[in-house]
Amino acid sequence: MALNQQEIDSSQALLDSGVLSPQDRTALLDNLKNEGYELDANGQITEVQKTTPPPTMPPLPTPPPPVTIITAPQTQAATPPDNNQQVNALMKSAFDMLTQAMMASQGGVDANEVNAIIRRYLNNEKVQKEELSDEVLNFIQKTRRIEIKIPEITMRKASTIFPQPITDLILSDMLAANNVYLYGGAGTGKTYIAEAIGEELLNCQVFTLPCNQYTSPLDLIGGQTIEGYQEGIVTRAYGCLDVPDTKDGAVLILDELPKLDPNTAGVLNDMLAKVKRGKGITNGKQEVIERPHRYEGDGENRRKVFTKKFFVIATGNILLNREDPAYAGNTKQDLSLQDRFAGSCYEFIIELESEKSNFIGILFIWNYLVELRFKIMELKYDNYAFVSRRLMESIRDTHMFYMAQKKEKPKDGEQFAAKTIIQGLESFFNLFLPNQEEALKRDTNYRDFKKLAIRKMNLDPDVAYIDSADDIKKSEELVNRYMTIQLDKYPYLKPQG
């Protein structure tokens, strides 16, 4: 059946618009061919001349009134890729809907009606991942935002437990297969942070070896015992012998390494030297323990690919080749052992912003303990006692328990007398000499803190955990002041280049 002029004009407009995919354009041309039309040299639809005219000619339809033809902009849209099924399906459906509307309307198609059809169709369409081409998926993967979520403290509105400047350096070294050594005062959180990095950031099984003068080679690489052969913690960690499939590898933490006997510490040299090269190490049976691996390639291209990762972090109070009478039990190690950590030895600092996050709601406690900590360091009283992470947590938990007990109803007329934070601090001050205790209390305005603590303890337990504007302002000042002091002290915390 011959097409009327309106249908010919509509088809011509679609061909000229450039919005059709190759498949839709081919389908339209085949439809025109079946109706007895073709494109001439100028791309115009013309009727195919037939040698034998049909026996009967139907009457020509009444010419339709003028129609509004929707044309594409002069700059043609790029042809959608053939493998993008969603785009092709969308274009074909839109084309079919427009064609039906044009053919059904003898009075022409209004531009607003066409816009409404397209808008209604697009609003109802959802693109599925499997319908996107490989090129689009690769582009999304390369440009999407990558986020590393630091685990939150579960007690309250805490943010991060990791001291960021140090964590960045530790991760960089570990991922480069460097052995890391962290040294600094006891209670600064070295082991705590090392274990958290291994478990929570690297998804590894953590093997912790507490080092002391009684640690033997059997503890490290294994040996015979009364109950038979026992594998050492170093060989177990290096070979990922007890690592579940859900873990990516193992982290060996050599805790308090300076306290290890120098002769025993020499056993570690072999393992520490082979971490980078991935070579096997010898256990107590003189067997070679290797990291889990597989081989890929053939001939000259054959190479070993490790299926589990292995990292080493050592901690200590001082550098390995030094001695300090303030830390009893530390032994001066051979310089070769410290060389195994060369370029990756960091004096551990306290990142106050993350530490503060553990005290949201009771910042008044943290504010005082921070000032007390740095005053002890300034007066060099830390050979008697120091404000460690453990002390902070102890004072915090003491206050939390005290406030919880206030909510408990007395049983049989008796009320349990919970310990207060003032009692906890007085116990801590007793660790110093009398003149030192007096100086610390005076220089940290301990009397004012006691008054503040009493006011806080008398609050309603249901509304007690609200920081005042003064507490928040003071905490920010402390972070800025003491972080600046610490960061200026260590050049390696300032990236260059």
CATH homologous superfamily placement of the largest domain:
P-loop containing nucleotide triphosphate hydrolases
**CATH architecture assignment of the largest domain:** 3-Layer(aba) Sandwich
Distance between the termini: 76 Å
> Number of DSSP helices?
19
Oligomerization? single chain
Q: Quick one: overall form?
A: flat
Strands of the biggest beta sheet: in what spatial order? 4-7-12-3-13
CATH-defined fold name of the largest domain: Rossmann fold
Structural class: alpha/beta
What is the average per-residue confidence, as pLDDT, rounded to a whole number?
Answer: 78
Overall CATH class of the largest domain:
Alpha Beta
Features:
single chain; 497 residues; alpha/beta; Rossmann fold; 3 domains; 5-stranded parallel beta sheet; two-stranded antiparallel sheet; 19 helices; 11% strand; flat
SSE map:
Blueprint: H1 5-17, H2 22-34, E1 37-39, E2 45-47, H3 85-104, H4 111-123, H5 134-143, H6 164-175, E3 180-183, H7 190-201, E4 204-210, H8 217-221, E5 223-225, E6 228-230, H9 233-238, E7 249-255, H10 262-265, H11 268-274, E8 281-282, E9 288-289, E10 293-296, E11 303-306, E12 309-316, H12 335-339, E13 345-347, H13 352-356, H14 363-378, H15 389-407, H16 421-429, H17 434-443, H18 446-457, H19 469-489
Parallel strand pairs: 3-12, 3-13, 4-7, 7-12
Antiparallel strand pairs: 1-2, 5-6, 8-9, 10-11
Helix pairs in contact: 3-4, 14-19
